[in-house]
Design goal:
This protein is of the alpha+beta class. The chain folds into three domains: about 5-55, Structural Genomics Hypothetical 15.5 Kd Protein In mrcA-pckA Intergenic Region, Chain A (Roll); about 60-125 and about 210-230, Alpha-Beta Plaits (2-Layer Sandwich); about 130-205, Alpha-Beta Plaits, CATH 3.30.70.1560. It has helices at about 5-10, 15-25, 90-95, 115-125, 145-150, 185-195, 225-230, and strands spanning about 25-30, 30-35, 45-50, 55, 60-65, 95-100, 105-115, 130-135, 165-170, 175-180, 200-205, 210, 220. Helix 1 (about 5-10) packs across helix 2 (about 15-25). The chain is elongated and about 70 Å long. The chain starts with a helix and ends with a helix. The structure holds uracil. Uracil (URA) binds near residues 185, 186 and 201.
């Protein structure tokens, strides 16, 4: 594929802009400078830099963010900055979307992709990819509460009870809850239904993919093949 098209496909702007980048000696490919935007490269394992910043060529992108509190997942955020602002502009330009949403005050593992099929699958009830939340509760947690969350609770506007796949108490005020679906404010409403209140909510895993301890809050990284395998299991 021609370098100009490669850069365009990776979110570096219009083809004209990409041509200008290359002519301005701002691009290297596989470690070598290239000032001809029409040079053909194989995209397999292609690595390039723009202004010294390294990028792998990706036909589709898959990434994770350790979401901070105070960010909305919507593309048109209303009251707080949007999570997309935490990603570099080529990724935003490529149109990556969040896979599901977290509330503005929820922290933790949030996935993004521009692969429509993958986004659809991850959100589909058929796949039921479990999500694990660590909840800090306002009141001390007791065994009746954790048992009720697994047995199923009624949410105000829903006649069918919702049940957690698992719930374990970690300390007096902390528990881990695993959900197979993601209704609006589901964790907060379930915890309220058993007479407690969520003070802080952190998503720590999706499927077998655990939020890495070394990914700082507010930072993102690519999903590896091994990460994707964990989500597809
Ligand atoms: N459940 C909630 O209540 N909030 C979230 O952000 C995610 C799950």
């Amino acid at each position: 594929m021609q370098l100009e098209r490669i850069l365009h496909s990776q979110g570096f702007g219009s083809r004209k802009l990409c041509r200008i980048l290359v002519h301005a000696d701002r691009v290297t490919v596989n470690g070598e400078p290239c000032d001809d935007p029409f040079t053909d490269f194989s995209t397999a394992n292609l690595q390039f830099t723009v202004d010294g910043e390294p990028w792998p060529y990706c036909e589709k992108t898959y990434l994770m963010l350790n979401k901070p509190a105070g960010y909305e997942c919507s593309l048109k955020p209303q009251h707080h900055p949007g999570v997309h602002a935490l990603l570099p502009s080529p990724l935003r330009e490529r149109g990556v979307q969040t896979i599901g949403r977290l509330d503005e005050d929820t922290t933790g593992l949030l996935l993004f992709s521009d692969d429509g099929v993958f986004i659809h699958r991850m959100g589909s009830p058929k796949w039921k990819v479990p999500k694990v939340y660590e909840i800090t509760a306002k009141h001390a947690i007791n065994a009746e509460q954790t048992a009720a969350l697994v047995a199923g609770v009624r949410l105000a506007d829903d006649p069918i009870p919702v049940a957690a796949l698992a719930c374990t108490q970690v300390s007096t005020h902390v528990m881990r809850l695993t959900l197979g679906e993601g209704k609006y404010h589901q964790v907060k409403r379930m915890v309220a239904a058993v007479g407690n209140r969520v003070e802080a909510l952190n998503r720590i895993a999706i499927g077998d993919l655990v939020l890495p301890k070394d990914l700082p809050v507010g930072k993102w990284r690519w999903l590896t093949d091994a990460d994707l395998e964990k989500l597809r299991k």
